[in-house]
């Protein structure tokens, strides 16, 4: 299991200091939520902020684009240090083209599904993705409650991967805490995104450690 702390719930006035606190616990990725106020009803940050962070942290940047027309911005995010780029199936008219575009820039290409979107929509692209992100809340905000119906979706995706002999990772994002992380991992998740559990209260490094421990219990 790998963990990708989401800075959405970090203190943006002291972002680097919050990142230093999780660095001590060596997270595998740092999850960056990009929102445009169109695809989702919230606005966050753009490539400018990633550019400012990229030489200051060694944690690979896992960029989750919750934006319309992502093709227009992919190069900017790659130049700003993204190691993985996730686009939403719902935001891509030509999903295969978008995934090929990401891969042509030498970074990992991933696709996200909103809770209501079927796994069937990915059937013909599964062999060309590095990761599938299952949203376990409706995207747009941190601190929401995990949607229990998503366990079944994670299990189904893990079983499709197995049947087809593919090796993309399964990332899960939204509402993860110490009470549900173990079940999410047992369902088949490889990469766990956690925002408010890590950054909203207490020490982010300690919270990350607690999550890892809870997954192993
Ligand atoms: C929500 C974002 C998530 C968010 C998760 O749209 O994609 O990455 O930061 O936050 P928590 O862990 O608080 O649900
Ligand atoms: Zn996210």
Detail the topology: elements first, then pairings.
Layout (H helix, E strand, L loop, with lengths): L1 E4 L9 H9 L6 E6 L11 H8 L6 E6 L7 H6 L2 E7 L6 H10 L3 E6 L17 E5 L14 H15 L4 E5 L7 H7 L3 E4 L1 H4 L4 H13 L1
Parallel strand pairs: 1-8, 2-3, 3-4, 4-5, 5-6, 6-7, 7-8
Helix pairs in contact: 1-8, 6-8
Bound molecules: D-xylitol-5-phosphate and zinc ion.
Organism: Thermoanaerobacterium aotearoense SCUT27
Family: Belongs to the ribulose-phosphate 3-epimerase family.
Function: Catalyzes the reversible epimerization of D-ribulose 5-phosphate to D-xylulose 5-phosphate.
Query: Which percent band covers the strand fraction?
Result: 15-25%
- Give me the CATH superfamily: Aldolase class I
Strand order of the largest sheet: 1-8-7-6-5-4-3-2
Number of strands: 8
What's the average pLDDT?
98
Identify the overall geometry: globular
Structural class: alpha/beta
Low-confidence stretches: none
What Rg, in angstroms, do the CA atoms define? 16 Å
- Ligand catalogue: D-xylitol-5-phosphate, zinc ion
Helical content band: 25-40%
Q: What is the name of the CATH architecture?
A: Alpha-Beta Barrel
**Quaternary structure annotation:** single chain
General description of the model:
By secondary structure, this protein is α/β, with parallel strands linked by helices. The protein has a single domain (2-216), classed as Alpha-Beta Barrel (TIM Barrel). The protein has eight helices and eight strands; from the N terminus they run E-H-E-H-E-H-E-H-E-E-H-E-H-E-H-H. The chain has helices spanning 15-23, 47-54, 74-79, 95-104, 150-164, 181-187, 196-199, 204-216; strands at 2-5, 30-35, 61-66, 82-88, 108-113, 131-135, 169-173, 191-194. An eight-stranded parallel beta sheet has the order 1-8-7-6-5-4-3-2. Helix 1 (15-23) packs parallel to helix 8 (204-216) and helix 6 crosses helix 8 (204-216). It is globular and about 45 Å long. The two termini are 13 Å apart. The mean pLDDT is 98. The chain binds D-xylitol-5-phosphate and zinc ion. Residues 6, 31, 33, 64, 173, 193 line the site of zinc ion. Zinc ion (ZN) binds next to strand 2.
């Amino acid at each position: 299991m790998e963990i990708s702390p989401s800075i959405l719930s970090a203190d943006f006035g002291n972002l680097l200091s919050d990142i230093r606190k999780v660095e001590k616990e060596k997270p595998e990725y740092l999850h960056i939520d990009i929102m445009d106020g169109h695809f989702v009803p919230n606005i966050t940050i753009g490539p400018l902020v990633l550019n400012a962070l990229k030489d200051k942290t060694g944690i690979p940047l896992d960029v989750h684009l919750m934006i319309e027309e992502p093709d227009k911005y992919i190069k900017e995010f790659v130049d700003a240090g993204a190691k993985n780029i996730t686009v939403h199936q719902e935001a891509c008219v030509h999903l295969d083209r978008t995934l090929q575009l990401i891969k042509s820039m030498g970074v990992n290409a991933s696709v996200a599904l909103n809770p209501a979107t079927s796994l069937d929509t990915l059937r013909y692209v599964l062999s060309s993705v590095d990761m599938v992100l299952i949203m376990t809340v409706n995207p747009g905000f941190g601190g929401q409650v995990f949607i229990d119906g998503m366990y079944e979706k994670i299990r189904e995706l893990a079983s499709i991967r197995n049947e087809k002999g593919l090796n993309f990772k399964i990332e899960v994002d939204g509402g993860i805490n110490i009470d549900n992380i173990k079940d999410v991992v047992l369902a088949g998740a490889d990469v766990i995104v956690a925002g408010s559990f890590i950054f909203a209260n207490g020490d982010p490094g300690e919270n990350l450690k607690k999550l890892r421990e809870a997954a192993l219990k």
